[in-house]
Each structure stands twice: as structure tokens, then as C-alpha cells.
């Protein structure tokens, strides 16, 4: 795909949704971190349902640590992998208190050192809580970038590297959200909705649907 097409795609996605953000509900960097950690292999809707009950009771590292692993489990047991996630949440809270003054560190290495936090989660937190021009590549973005040929790659790392190279600075902060939302609601996994896709004429997917 050439750069003129990429810029047109980004321009259309921006015009359609000028101020995109995550669908995870959060009101602080800490809540965002915990919600992203809980969202691995789970839907944002299921995470929001659980945190709507958890955060009014506990939304600081100290308060969640005081709940303990079993206390956290009781709020998140509807979310996949809740056992290991509860353990990671508690360990993460302890590290935030002991090493970061109870704050979420604005630092990639420090974030990735937290239990249950990988590159993707760190990218989301740096982008959405702190405004960094990072682009977290999840399953939706991976699929959209390969189908459209916007930024093809064999794995998420290759797609992230390509995106960081080809997405102009003015689009970088919001690109992650536009691509995720496009993949979640239009360029869906099983049967993309090409007939109602606003970038259909620019997309280079060979098997478009009606
Ligand atoms: S035209 Fe189809 S394959 Fe291409 S981006 Fe749109 S929905 Fe996805």
C-alpha cells in the first residue's frame, strides 16, 4: 500500500471519529492499568461490568491490596483467567506501592516489569493515560493491518514496527483506537462488513464481502 492511501485511510477514520478513546471505563491511570490487565482474552464489556463494582470499593493500590487475592477474585470471577489475573493485580499493587510511590510509572520498562503487563498493555497505558504516540497491536489491529495491507507483518511485533514507521506523527496518538474500533465493528474477524466500510475503495483485501 502506498503512503497516499494510508494517509487517506487515517484521514477518513479521523473525520469519522475525531476524539477516539478506549472502550474500557477508567478515571485514573491506575484504573486504566488494572482494566487493561484484566482485559487480556476478555471483552471490554465484561471488564467494565466487573470494575463498575470493584472501583467504587477500591481504586487505589492500597485499597485493592487490602482486598487480598480472594477479595479481588470475588469481583472479577466473571472474567476469563480470573485466578491468575487476581494474583497479578495484587502483585502489581504491591510493586506500585513499594517501588513507585503508589503511582503508575510513565516508563515502559517499569510498566513491563509489572506482573501480567506485557508490551501491549504498556503501550495502551502509555498511549491512553499519558498521551504517548505508541501503537499497541492487538488481534483486531493485526487483522486489519494485514487484510488491508496498511501495515502487513507476520507477527504483532512486525506490525507494530511497520505502523510506527508509516503512520505520520499527526495520527500516531489516536491510530491505535481507530484501528481497534475498525476491526471490532467493521473489519470483523469472521466476515468483514466491506459493504458498509468507509475505506473499502482504499483497502487492498482480495476477498471483500458485499
Ligand atoms: S473493505 Fe472489508 S476487508 Fe477492507 S477494511 Fe473494510 S471491512 Fe476490512
From TrEMBL:
PROSITE patterns xrefs: ENDONUCLEASE_III_1 (PS00764), ENDONUCLEASE_III_2 (PS01155)
InterPro entries: DNA_glycosylase, Endonuclease-III-like_CS2, Endonuclease3_FeS-loop_motif, Endouclease-III_FeS-bd_BS, HhH-GPD_domain, HhH_base_excis_C, HhH_motif, Nth
Pfam families, alphabetized: EndIII_4Fe-2S, HHH, HhH-GPD
UniProt domain HhH-GPD: residue ranges: 38-185
Catalytic activities: 2'-deoxyribonucleotide-(2'-deoxyribose 5'-phosphate)-2'-deoxyribonucleotide-DNA = a 3'-end 2'-deoxyribonucleotide-(2,3-dehydro-2,3-deoxyribose 5'-phosphate)-DNA + a 5'-end 5'-phospho-2'-deoxyribonucleoside-DNA + H(+)
SUPFAM superfamilies in UniProt: DNA-glycosylase (SSF48150)
Cofactor: [4Fe-4S] cluster
Entry note: cofactor: Binds 1 [4Fe-4S] cluster.
Transmembrane domains' residue ranges: none
Keyword annotations from UniProtKB, A to Z: 4Fe-4S, DNA damage, DNA repair, DNA-binding, Endonuclease, Glycosidase, Hydrolase, Iron, Iron-sulfur, Lyase, Metal-binding, Nuclease
One annotated GO biological process: base-excision repair, AP site formation
Entry keyword annotation includes Cell inner membrane: no
GO molecular function: 4 iron, 4 sulfur cluster binding; class I DNA-(apurinic or apyrimidinic site) endonuclease activity; DNA binding; DNA N-glycosylase activity; metal ion binding
Binding site for [4Fe-4S] cluster: 187, 194, 197, 203
EC numbers for this chain: 4.2.99.18
Family affiliation: Belongs to the Nth/MutY family.
NCBIfam families xref list: nth, PRK10702.1
Function: DNA repair enzyme that has both DNA N-glycosylase activity and AP-lyase activity. The DNA N-glycosylase activity releases various damaged pyrimidines from DNA by cleaving the N-glycosidic bond, leaving an AP (apurinic/apyrimidinic) site. The AP-lyase activity cleaves the phosphodiester bond 3' to the AP site by a beta-elimination, leaving a 3'-terminal unsaturated sugar and a product with a terminal 5'-phosphate.
Name by which UniProt lists this protein: Endonuclease III
Amino acid at each position: 500500500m502506498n503512503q497516499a492511501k494510508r494517509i487517506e485511510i487515517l484521514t477518513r477514520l479521523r473525520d469519522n471519529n475525531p476524539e477516539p478513546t478506549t472502550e474500557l471505563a477508567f478515571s485514573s491511570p491506575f484504573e486504566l492499568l488494572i482494566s487493561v490487565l484484566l482485559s487480556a482474552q476478555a471483552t471490554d464489556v465484561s471488564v467494565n461490568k466487573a470494575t463498575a463494582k470493584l472501583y467504587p470499593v477500591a481504586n487505589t493500590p492500597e485499597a485493592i491490596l487490602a482486598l487480598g487475592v480472594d477479595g479481588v477474585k470475588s469481583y472479577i470471577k466473571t472474567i476469563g483467567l480470573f485466578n491468575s489475573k487476581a494474583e497479578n493485580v495484587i502483585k502489581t499493587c504491591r510493586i506500585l506501592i513499594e517501588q513507585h510511590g503508589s503511582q503508575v510509572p510513565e516508563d515502559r520498562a517499569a510498566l513491563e516489569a509489572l506482573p501480567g503487563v506485557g508490551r501491549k498493555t504498556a503501550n495502551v497505558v502509555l498511549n491512553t493515560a499519558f498521551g504517548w504516540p505508541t501503537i499497541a497491536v492487538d488481534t483486531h489491529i493485526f487483522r486489519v493491518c494485514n487484510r488491508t495491507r496498511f501495515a502487513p507483518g507476520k507477527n504483532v511485533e512486525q506490525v507494530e514496527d511497520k505502523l510506527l514507521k508509516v503512520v505520520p506523527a499527526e495520527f500516531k496518538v489516536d491510530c491505535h483506537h481507530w484501528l481497534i474500533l475498525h476491526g471490532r465493528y467493521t473489519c470483523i474477524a469472521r466476515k468483514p462488513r466491506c459493504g458498509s466500510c468507509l475505506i473499502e475503495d482504499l483497502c487492498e483485501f482480495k476477498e471483500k464481502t458485499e
